[in-house]
Amino acid sequence: MARFKYNKAAKPLESTVETGIGTSALDLKTIAKAIPCQEACPAKTNVPAYIEAIARGEDDKAYRINQEDNIFPGVLGRICTRVCEDACRHKWTNVEGPVQICHLKRYAADNIKEKQSAMPPWFGPTGKKIMVIGAGPAGLSAARDLSRMGHQVTVVEKAPAPGGMLVDGIPAFRLPRDIVSAEIALIEQGGVEIRTDVHVTQTMVDDYCNAYDAVLLAAGTTVTNSIAIPGAEDRQISGLDFMRGYNRGEVTAVRGNVVVVGGGFTAVDCARAARRVGEKDALVSIAYRRTEASMAADKNEFQAMAEEEIAIRTLLSPLRFELNDRGAGTLVLQRNLVADGTLGVKAKIVPLEGSEVRIPCDTLIVAIGQKRDESLLPFGVDSEEDGKTSKPGLFVSGDFKGGSADVISAVASGKNVARLMDEYLMGKRRLMRGVKYEVTDCDGETGRYRDHDIQFPLPMPMAPVAQRFENNAEVETGFTQLIAQNAAARCYLCHYKFEIDQDKCIHCNWCIEASPRDCIKKAARIFYDADGFPTKVFEAERNQDATYIYIDNDECIRCGKCLRVCPTEAIRMRKLEAGDCVKCDD
Amino acid sequence: MPKNLIFKRRSEDEDIKASGMYLDFDEMGKKGVMSSADSSIAKWYGIYKSRQPGQHMARIVIPGGVVTSEQAKNIAAVSEKYGQGIINVTTRQALQFHWLKVPNLADVMRELFEYGNSTRHGCGDVTRNVTACPLAETCPAARINARKWARKTADVLGAQRDLDDLPRKFKINYSGCRADCAQPHINCVGLSGVVYKGQPGFKVVIGGGMGWKPFVAQPLFGFIPEASAVDVCRAVALLFREHGDRFNRAKSRLKFVVHRNGIDFCRDVVLQNLLSEGKSQEGFVVEDIDDEGTSYEERPLLQDTPKGTDGLFTVRVIIPKGELPFRKFYELAKLSEQYGDQRLYTSNRQNLEMHGVESRDVSNLKFAIHNLGFETDGSFSLRDIVTCVGTTYCPKAVTETRVLFDRIHRLVSRDTYRGILSSGIINITGCPNSCSPYRIADIGFRGMRIREEEGSVEGYEVLLGGSQTSFGEKLGEFKLCDCEEVVTLVLDAFMMVRRDDEFLTRCVQRVGIEYFRRAVYGEV
Ligand SMILES: Cc1cc2nc3c(=O)[nH]c(=O)nc-3n(C[C@H](O)[C@H](O)[C@H](O)COP(=O)(O)OP(=O)(O)OC[C@H]3O[C@@H](n4cnc5c(N)ncnc54)[C@H](O)[C@@H]3O)c2cc1C
Ligand code: HEM
Ligand code: SF4
Ligand code: SF4
Ligand code: SF4
Ligand code: SF4
To answer: Which among A485, A508, A564 has the least Cβ separation from residue B398?
Structure first.
């Protein structure tokens, strides 16, 4: 037996490979923890990579990085629901709120210098033909990726222009149409054929299923919900119809005082659109049964609505509509109360019996959601799990599959179903989600410092109210480069991961001394799940109890100090990049 | 408002320096606290934080490694009055003492200054204590009096305000001959006396250094006339000032400048610097030259009681761990008045020396020194172990180096090893900063903690066969409790193959590290 060969606790491993691509559950868990915004994004956008590009002044590159995961950077940079921002590391490491990920996305899209081209294909032509029904974000996302996989894709669309709710729902003052059409043009350039003005029916779906190798139903949710408001049976307008009319230039005026019932995207847009085509000095109100926290509007939009003098009335449910002898209408509503102990989006409401609130109302718009047109689904389809229906070759995605959600979910849904369809068509998974690891040699210089954390996020500049009403002008005017780089510098660049090689570490604790926060821990024990992913760290107080000196990725702000101070070069910084990789081995 | 968005920024220390380098120690004393920015600047005043909160160390700069007996007594008195009366001799020939509190720092400096003792530039990003080989004036091998040039360099460079803010510390040393007792190869600038075409002058090497990333210095000039020595040191300092990394302090030192840019680039800059300041380059030779001086020993410091060219003797005082109480230091100063040249000399083995001792006084002096509890013989032997302070004072330390010192000292003092005592030196350092240069010793220890099944224990990385110009090779990593056994195995293996008076390092170079690894780890 050899002397002086000591038994040591095993080294924690957080990836299956040093450099190169790892595709195991461990790799995916590691990147999920390292880059919380990317994990939160339904489309898994590589956020830190594009923010780093913006910080370095490489706007075109930033756009390209976005395009990889998401066909609509310019669009989503304006109207995304920003789940990523809720997950951003800044939410728990400082008090100035998350990185303005979404505004940055828009900045890059608005400032591209070179003409963009379609994304390159992953695979050569397969000879397979695919029909996609619905040219909304879900259908188009699936179409682009299927076409990159080498399939021949046709999209049919009922409306006169592609885009789905991006053009029929969301108004131009939030999303200028040239942005939508430019990004759709890139998809067409990639080989996707879009046919508009095709109203698909159930029999046509059946026919497509016979004629094509695979069919995707991404027809969104077009059937509007309605409620019975006594007295208003024949005068309520559906919010979706109103927006479609407004967007197509068919609705150019509304009469008198307007009340919009609802609190979702449509309700908010209806109120703002009504303000733009409505009578001067008319009252425009939103009446919503829940609280503001549950409304589909962000801080900027609330501010914009205040400036546009839209009254937001919450905790109100309609009771009846009354018309007086002079023809002036009133919507009568009942109050709701928030149950004690509940707050925010999850607040529980209970009606306050006997209460009444009256709001002047000549035009009543009801925007309380929509559902899909069930009649499109062929007979006999009894399951749609993950987007794959019980009818071979027929898939569903987007709002049509899961009910009204948002654009980024539709994009993600389209991406995911494209991979399922490809697997169905080719008999195997050809694209794998993997993590690319790269060992860096830049001394842990991520380019950011602790100082960058004290920069205040600057607000999105907005057009003055007077200008907004001319030509349906866009309200949010976008970041300048200075503001954008300022915002980008806040990002911790979470795609850089600092790690300690336990066999090189001598437990000098210098990294702990140098660290700006409680990011490096003395660990007595580390517990792992079945995939080998560390789930729990028992911290040690004393040196003799410390088995490992361990970097807690959740707390690391990528300052690089530890790496630079480590005297044994035990700390390295790897760059992590998650994405689709072509699986070579079968 | 937006802060600056520069992607690469200078280090925090550079920011602190830029915001002003003056410290009012009296005012600080009244407040009783030193901020962390203040403590960065305090280094320029020779004040360093100790491991113990609220405690500080003062480092007295001793250019050329010599103090008068009076200065020594002053140091003893101040250390007793404000500290705990324990004095440390450092490997760069300075003296320092600990346990100082903020309210006393101003008085400490003032009282030291009474006798010309100064802590200024003891630490900080400046030219540090300029060192010299200890025998300097009277060494039979010396081509030049190294001490004279060390002191002159310290005086001139120390007075040049444009060298006050270097990227990091800057270390210069002088040796009297190419036996290189002052260790030129592990300093920023090392000058060694040579004789060329009948002229005394120096060979110059730059860019050496220990620390976490060691480099052997590279030859800048094969020969420069002695009169150009200070000019060249300044020209190198300017090279460092302009090209040192001010972003990453861990990579600031001159050794990285030389490593990154190459010695030829550095030489061009140095020559350019000389030219632009109108300094002579006459007689400079780039290539290595044949030294015409007398022969010298491989390890001159091994001699006990060497006799100088003036016919007088040097008596050494071996200071274990380089640490001694103020009273003994005071007594040694007195002994130098009685028997020596009224001066105490410091050496890079953390020992003291008395020069100018008459042959008839040698035994009396030694007797007196032995009475104080110190040995006088065995300099540069296995028992002359150099250890850094370790966890006793140093905030960076990983291990308690003195525990290992005691164990190894006891071990090598055994009769078994009497025959090989002069075969090597042992250096022990508590962390990779290598305050005790463990890579150049025959046996080097560097502190670390070793991970166990659960928890960790103190241990050492052990190197064998180091020298100034070729660093030791790694034997392995061992827990503290195994270190004595490892040294025993190494020395026993060495004794089996040693040829004549071979040094351990030479032996390792001859038979290879594998032989020793096998001896330690057993057959594999
Ligand atoms: C007014 C409004 C504002 C919104 N604002 C936001 C917002 O700010 N942020 C956000 O993230 N989300 C917003 N949304 C939601 C978002 O637009 C949708 O969730 C998203 O567009 C769903 O994408 P999809 O592709 O699944 O469906 P859709 O976008 O609805 O696309 C479906 C497409 O299928 C077509 N189609 C339907 N039936 C047929 C048929 N029978 N034959 C042929 N074609 C057919 C439709 O014409 C449509 O083009 C908003 C929605 C509305 C209505
Ligand atoms: C008390 C706390 C001390 C601290 C915090 C400290 C810090 C350091 C650091 C950071 C270095 C590395 C320099 C570098 O390569 O960049 C270093 C090197 C060194 N220190 Fe110390 N030190 C301390 C005590 C000492 C003592 C007591 C001595 C002398 C006995 C000493 C002598 C040296 C020497 C000789 C070097 C090597 C210089 C080189 O690399 O060229 N230090 N020290
Ligand atoms: S697309 Fe939306 S969810 Fe994804 S990163 Fe961007 S803003 Fe976040
Ligand atoms: S700091 Fe940057 S990379 Fe990290 S979660 Fe936030 S946006 Fe994403
Ligand atoms: S880079 Fe290192 S020191 Fe900086 S926050 Fe991360 S773990 Fe801490
Ligand atoms: S600085 Fe390096 S060696 Fe020291 S504890 Fe940290 S990782 Fe380990």
So the answer is: A508
**Atom 7 (ligand 1) nearest CA:** A79
Q: CB A7 to CB B396 under 8 A?
A: no
Domain boundaries, chain B: 12-113, 142-276, 312-371, 386-521
pTM here is 0.89
Q: Whose CA is nearest to atom 8 of ligand 4?
A: A37
Give per-residue pLDDT as tens, B348-405: 999 999 999 999 999 999 999 999 999 999 999 999 999 999 999 999 999 999 999 9
Domain edges within chain A: 129-222+372-429, 223-370
Q: Is the dihedral of CA B131, B134, B137, B139 positive or negative?
A: negative
Query: What angle, rounded to 10 degrees, do the helices at A59-69 and A101-110 form?
Result: 110
- Chain B contacts of A506, Cβ < 8 Å? 398, 431-432, 447-449, 461
Q: Is A507's CB within 8 Å of B5's CB?
A: no
CA dist A133 and A400 (Å) reads: 11
Q: Which of B433, B431, B435 is nearest to B388 (CA)?
A: B435
Cα B242 versus chain centre, distance: 25
Give the model confidence (pLDDT) of B196-213 as tens digits.
Answer: 999 999 999 999 999 999
Closest ligand to C-alpha of residue A106 is 3
Distance from CA of B457 to the nearest CA of A (A): 6
Ligand 5 centroid vs A450 CA: distance in angstroms? Answer: 10
CATH number for the segment(s) A223-370: 3.50.50.60
Judged by a CB distance cut-off of 8 A, whether residue B418 touches chain A is no
Report the distance separating Cα B177 and Cα B136, nearest Å: 9
Q: Is the dihedral of CA B152, B158, B161, B162 positive or negative?
A: positive
Q: Give the pLDDT confidence score for residue B271 in this predicted structure.
A: 98
* Amino acid occupying residue B354: M
Annotation: CATH topology of B312-371? Alpha-Beta Plaits (3.30.70)
Does residue B317 surpass a pLDDT of 80? yes
Q: What is the pLDDT of residue B7?
A: 61
| A368, two tokens | 């309380």
What dotted CATH number matches B386-521? 3.30.413.10
Least confident of A137-151, A156-170, A466-480: A466-480
**Mutation probe of ligand 1 site: the residue of A81, A83, A165 with most atoms within 8 A of C-beta:** A165
Closest ligand to C-alpha of residue B451 is 6
Taking domain B142-276, whether its CATH number is 3.30.413.10 is answered by yes
CATH topology of domain B12-113: Sulfite Reductase Hemoprotein; domain 2 (3.90.480)
Tell me if domain A129-222+372-429 and domain A223-370 are identical in fold: yes
Superfamily (CATH H level) for A129-222+372-429: FAD/NAD(P)-binding domain (3.50.50.60)
Instruction: Convert the pLDDT of each residue in B103-127 to its tens digit.
Output: 999 999 999 999 999 999 999 999 9
